[in-house]
Design brief:
By secondary structure, this protein is mainly alpha-helical. It has helices at residues 2-17, 23-42, 47-66, 83-88, 105-114, 117-126, 132-157, 166-187.
């Protein structure tokens, strides 16, 4: 039993601390961060809310890993790109989609629109006080923050392999807000009413 536990810890160390961070490693880091925050911030939340908060941590970790925002120190490249070059490579025109190419234009636009939509569903499930005005602030913060993290990853890794554009920030912001509006619309749908059962009075004929 102790040998198997040590072997499991060694596997965790290989996933979390060796080489480029994989999807499994990012998910494990998200789970560990949630467990650390749980007794500090979320211990008074209901079980369903804590489940949605855990999903938010896992989705955020998976999203950052898929966008290659989690740059490990051993993946830094030699200084072949300056910070000014990385900022200059940003596509500041939100209406210029020629860099996507004609073949994958719609796929790219759809991906940028859908990438933050789960957050629009999970946030109101995790926080009962999530109102529209709060989501109007949170959505652009998430959309812009994701592009800023990709820009920082480009600067740290000395490459321009991650595409950073204001158009992607606008689309992801719209997707996050659309997810919240869809959730609000679904929550306001009337639930099917169960037919009441009529029982005959003892003094009445059935």
């Amino acid at each position: 039993m102790p040998g198997s536990s040590i072997h499991l810890l060694v596997q965790f160390r290989e996933i979390l601390f060796r080489g480029p961070l994989s999807m499994a490693g990012a998910m494990l880091w998200g789970c560990l961060l949630y467990l650390i925050c749980l007794p500090l911030f979320f211990r008074k939340k209901r079980l369903t809310q804590n489940f949605c908060i855990a999903l938010l941590f896992l989705y955020a970790a998976a999203l950052l890993q898929s966008c290659r925002c989690l740059v490990a120190p051993n993946s830094f490249q030699p200084a072949n790109l300056t910070a000014a070059d990385a900022v200059a490579a940003v596509e500041w025109n939100p209406f210029l989609f020629s860099s996507f190419g004609v073949s994958n234009l719609w796929a790219t636009l759809l991906r940028d629109f859908l990438i933050l939509m789960p957050i629009g569903f999970l946030v109101p499930l995790a926080a009962s006080r999530a109102r529209l005005w709060k989501m109007l602030i949170l959505s652009p913060l998430c959309g812009i923050g994701l592009e800023v993290l990709q820009l920082l990853a480009n600067i740290l890794s000395q490459t321009s392999e991650r595409s950073v554009s204001t158009g992607a920030a606008i689309l992801s912001t719209a997707g996050c807000l659309t997810g919240y509006l869809l959730f609000s619309a679904l929550r306001k749908l009337p639930l099917p009413k169960q037919k009441a059962r009529h029982y005959a009075h003892p003094g009445q004929a059935s």
